[in-house]
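Much of the work behind modern protein science is quiet bookkeeping, done one molecule at a time. The protein below has been through that process, and both of its lines are reproduced in full.
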Amino acid sequence: MTIRVALVDDQELVRVGLAMVVDATDDIQIVLQAADGAEAVARLAETTVDVVLMDVQMPRLDGVEATRLVTARENAPKVIVLTTFDLDEYAFAGLRAGASGFLLKDASADEVLHAIRAVHAGDSVLAPSTTRRMLDHLPTARAGHEASPLLQRLTARERDVLLEIAHGHSNAETAQRLFLSEATVKTHVAHLLAKLEVRDRVQAVIFAYENGLVRPG
């Protein structure tokens, strides 16, 4: 099955470089290119795409707002935001807007291809160590804030697994800490993502912090 990809960046040189990387594969195809967020939002409404590589700093409509609009749609594609600096404010804003991960613009060809395949498979493009650093930038629930009723859908074990994810632990680490098999952890992760109505681990972490289930530190 071919993965259909959109490239969104105001720098033509970046788009050309990414297209060359993707065109060298047999399982990924560029089906759309756009020079800014506004163009991307309009064209993605008419084109079926699996994964979007989205620059965050663009004219007319930036990548953060474009990501928010695109991921809010039914059957939305997965979005990977492209940023110049590791874990900068734009990357975090993109993740909170619904992106499944981020890549540096100087990422290697292998890293780009791995990221596309990973998010298409339902994973996120964030290492556990990156997740831990991300937590310091997330707002926690305000005093008196009522937690989402979606949390009540989780079983006790699914809540345990969510706590582990929210603290940046991998599936293997979670399995060891909870005395479960890694396959069982993966099953719990799939169930809790569905129950919380989030697409991936990144959004699950953000959900947990914004609803006061866990706090930094």
